[in-house]
Amino acid sequence: MKAIIQRVTKASVSVGEEQISSIGRGLCVLLGISIEDTQKDVDYMVRKILNLRLFEDENGRAWSKSVMDQEYEVLCVSQFTLQCILKGNKPDFHAAMSAELAQPFYNNILEHMRTTYKPEMIKDGQFGAYMQIHIQNDGPVTIELVSPSAPTDPRQLSKQEKLQQRKEKTRSKGPSESGRDRATPRPRGQDPNASSGADGDVSSEREP
To answer: Which domain of life is it from (predicted)?
Structure first.
């Protein structure tokens, strides 16, 4: 699942000439659901969206408070185009969940948000409609969020597999062996851009 999260001073959704939803200060969240998403992705996204520290505290200290801390509103809009994979210059949306499955899945996300936070603070657009989204971005502050599930793009899958292999090789080395590797000078003529496997050491993200 992918999300574009924008800190806003106000945002609204219209269908045709009718405004169907609006919020004051808070977050506008565009959600792209993939064919591989599960309840685990829902839990991760809801937790992150509601706990991201994108607001200042009462002393003006930035990045201190979440939307729940400040009791601000959240406007969610289903956005299948976030699951776009470009084929040349043409967008392909086969990675997006079909509308028949995505609608109840999206409703589940909204319900989870309302249960976790306050029902009246979670607003949404109209699923499947041609909407106009009016956003007054505050900052601007825009965060891209991706749930930790396997990507559907084969190129991304290949990168992830290589990264995992490097991590496993690094972990399999004993401390003394790793120390010797670091102390050994690079042989003359070796490609300076060749990977040593160290880029597989990825620091874990702290969960709220």
So the answer is: Eukaryota
Q: Residues 158-196, buried b or exposed e (16+ Cβ, 10 A)? A: eeeeeeeebeeebeeeeeeeeeeeeeeeeeeeeeeeeee
Q: Give the integer Cα–Cα distance in Å for 2 and 124.
A: 17
2-150 has CATH 3.50.80.10 classification: yes
For the segment 196-206, what is each residue's pLDDT rounded down to a tens digit? 333 434 344 44
Q: Could you read off the pLDDT of 28-84 as tens digits, one per residue? A: 999 999 999 999 999 999 999 999 999 999 999 999 999 999 999 999 999 999 999
DSSP 109: H
Domain range summary for the chain, segments of one domain joined by +: 2-150, 153-183
In three-state secondary structure terms, 197 is coil
